[in-house]
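Allow me, if you will, to draw on your knowledge of protein folds for a short while. A protein sequence and the structure tokens that stand for its backbone fold form the material at issue. I would ask you to consider whether the tokens describe a fold that such a sequence might reasonably adopt. Thank you for your consideration; the sequence and its tokens are set out here:
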Amino acid sequence: MPSCGHGSIRTAAALVAAGVVIAYAPVAHAYHEGDERLVDGTAHTLRAGEVRVGLGELELGPTSFITVGTDVEAWAASFVLQALVVNAHAKVRLLHTEPLTISLYAGAYRASIPASGPVVAGSGSLLLIPASIYTSSDLSKRVSLHLGVTYAHVEADGEVQLVPGNDRARAALAASALQLHAMVEYRVSRLVAITLAGHAQPVMSQPAVHLSSTTAYGDHLEFVGTVAPVDRTAVAAVANVVISGRHVNLRIGGGYGAIFLPSMGVMIPYRTVLPELDAYVRF
């Protein structure tokens, strides 16, 4: 979750974006029709040569059917985790017809375990690979349905210091999950759209953990097993208003449920209010 400072920056930026969108609304282009469509959580891609720069992502459309980019929030998390989170993703549109669009999405996130960090200390690395398939269908001139399925696999391996001052233990972790996403988009006008999204994680392998260590007395300790969260909440619902101007775009809303990061295939099983906020430019 972002820190208070990061949240304040995003809030301020979004408010500025909202002002710009409103100011330029009379001469704005629409991102809710034709080949100018919402790309978050949908099968749609950026237009050929189009660039997106925002609080959440940096993306480029080298062609009309391919979008490549990186998650800004993952890079920002590097400062909190004290470990560089290198990441990239790509979306390839396989089919584009008037009633149906289908795309494949894949990403990669890699972080090194820091020698001393606020969450864990040691050495080693973590690799997360999410892969998704999205479909988008225009049910009418104003209503669209977007569906997605995401499979994510994470592996970590290295030496960690679980308790400050204790010897490091050799650790390995592996887990995978399957998520389902659905979003209904209602285009109020050429500039404004309302979205209602639902997320669920019906399948998750219990993380397999392997820990081994040697005490100061030469005794070898080893643990091989699985761990499970106490809170198994694995659903969430979020509603947003999306305002699109000539270049500046704003998404704001909220919901309730577990914390989902759909592009990463990550779900944190903690029930909470979910504020939604993003501001970006497309040019």
The radius of gyration is 21 Å. Helices lie at 4-23, 72-81. Residues 1-29 have pLDDT under 50 and may be disordered.
